Amino acid sequence: MAAAVSNKKPNVLPPRFGHPSRMDPDTRRVTLLILAHLIVFLIAMSHDEIVAEMVADGWFLAGFAERCELLIGFVLFLCWGALTVRLLDVVKNAARQEGPSE
To answer: What's the CA gap between 94 and 98, in Å, rounded?
Structure first.
């Protein structure tokens, strides 16, 4: 009797098309942190208009508009700082993993 021929392929990961380094966890972290920086920046650029719309819609009185602008600006500043610290941590860890360059 002839031996049965098996057509089973070994367990091999399928090829990843494009740039596989885009899927690395550090790359995703940096991409998301940069995207978050962009979102915070865009909100900071338009927080005056956001507060004006909130006053027009009756969320709070017009007398408190300036205080709300300052509060939103301060919260955005804190968010920007936290994102920057996290981005620097990710970059520092990536540099540490690569080792010294020669």
So the answer is: 6
